[in-house]
Design a protein that fits this description.
By secondary structure, the protein is α/β, with parallel strands linked by helices. About 55% of the residues lie in helices and about 20% in strands. The protein has one domain: Rossmann fold. The structure holds guanosine-5'-triphosphate and magnesium ion. Keywords: GTP-binding, Nucleotide-binding.
Length: about 220
Amino acid sequence: MSPPDHLGKILVHKVVILGDGGVGKTAIANQFIVQHFVTTYDPTGDGSYRKQVVVDGTPCVVEVLDTDGQDEYKALRELWIREGEAFLLVFSITSRNSFTSVRSYCQQIQKIKKSEVPLILVGNKSDLASTDREVSPQEAEALAKELNCTFIETSAKIPHNIDETFHSLIRLHRKQTKEQEQKAAEAATVEAQTSQTDGGEAKKTGWRKRLSGFIKSIDKNKKG
Ligand SMILES: Nc1nc2c(ncn2[C@@H]2O[C@H](COP(=O)(O)OP(=O)(O)OP(=O)(O)O)[C@@H](O)[C@H]2O)c(=O)[nH]1
Ligand SMILES: [Mg+2]
């Protein structure tokens, strides 16, 4: 077990699942959190769950926010996106409409977050690929390339690629957090160096000023 002081340092990843109604967001969240597949479709409100996992030997907590894809919840979406740190953008491979919606979710994330965020494009219901597929993997790959993210096909039913998807997102978030910390440390070093140089300059200027006054007074004395 980790020593107690380490527990306090465990990183919490706030993952938001976005996508149209019926694509399987709740099913994905349930499968990841409790390894259970819900067959009934209950378009309920948003819910959040927590789970501790170990990814690449490091423990962390994943906080999953399962949003509601119904239109009446649109107003809440901005709030969910603000809360989130990493995103699963879900469509169903059996619904072209849900695939078309992906771009607008992504635009909304970019508008609110302003900077790049860890994001994975998820094509759910892969178990229905042979009978009901409406979106090809090639099309989804092309969209992922355009959105500068990874594409993964999942099935919350069988299940397939569920843990892998969350683990990949955690890795992306860890990488980004590390890069941001490095950037902040670099910026702090540059700032410290600049203020040191500024201080040096200020001293030099003060020293020059004082010296020039001293030289002037010597010159005056000489003349006198
Ligand atoms: N075959 C299959 N069915 C799935 C899969 N994932 C979800 N479903 C079914 O699709 C329906 C909708 O799933 P939900 O998880 O409730 O969809 P949702 O995205 O949460 O929908 P909203 O809460 O309305 O936004 C349910 O009947 C699920 O059983 C999957 O991977 N394969
Ligand atoms: Mg749901």
